[in-house]
Amino acid sequence: MTSHNRYAILSLLPYTIFPVTMLVLADLPLRVILQKMLLAAPFTLFVGILNPFFDTTPMLQLGNIYLTGGFVSFISIFLRMFLCVTASLLLIATTPFHEICHSLRRLGLPKPFVIQLMLLHRYIFLLAEEAARLIQARSLRSFNGRGAELRYFIPMLGQLLLRSMDRAQRVHAAMLSRGFTGEIHLLRPSTIKNTDIVFVAAWSAAFYLFRTGIPSHIIRRIGAFFLT
């Protein structure tokens, strides 16, 4: 995605074959993927919303409509966001997180980084539950909207920090008592099969073909034929 220029649109369209194919093969609901992808849309909007105001040079003509360079780059940013976020969501939806961490470790990422990432994914939900219990306890002890000011939430953050540290010490002690050494162990050995090699080789060849621009030239000619 980053190797293409900021005005690339047609050259990015062939990459949509990958997420569409993976959605079909994995039998994943498209609606859920799109809902999660919309969480990243506000950040993308914030990044590219000013592009049409700064780059006003006409670049693309669609019939009688001219699109400026800023608007084209804005569309390109959204398309990149769709491709990157969808690929990440497909990876998370089809692969257990501990196997992703194990693969990152085998790829050479530092052990502290991988362990912190795995523990964050494992215990972030406990932290959210603890925060929800604190908020519920505060709401049960307040009446008529009292205690909803910001100054009441600051001590709650300190209480949440103390509870989190206490829970982290108990979890760490439990992990050490069970022989935790910082390494990730899987119940099933991770091996590369022939189908995995074919899968990686086929998509690598497809991505190389997409990057050369051959499919985009075909799309451009088809679009020019219908527009004319």
Write up what this structure looks like.
This protein is mainly alpha-helical and 228 residues long. The chain folds into 2 domains: 13-94 and 192-227, no CATH class; 100-177, no CATH class. 69% of the residues lie in helices and 4% in strands. The chain is built from 10 helices and 2 strands, in the order ααααββαααααα. A two-stranded antiparallel sheet has the order 1-2. Strand 1 and strand 2 (65-68) form a beta hairpin. Helix 7 (111-140) crosses helix 8. The mean pLDDT is 81.
Kindly estimate the percentage of residues that lie in beta strands according to DSSP: under 5%
**What's the main sheet like?**
2 strands, antiparallel
SSE string: HHHHEEHHHHHH
Question: Mean of residue pLDDT?
Answer: 81
Main sheet: strand order: 1-2
Low-confidence stretches: none
- Radius of gyration, in Å, reads 24 Å
Structural class: mainly alpha
Domain count:
2
* Silhouette: flat
Q: What gap, in angstroms, lies between the N and C termini? A: 30 Å
- E-strand count: 2
- Tally the helices: what do you get? 10
Helix content: 55-70%
Distinctive features:
10 helices, mainly alpha, flat, 228 residues
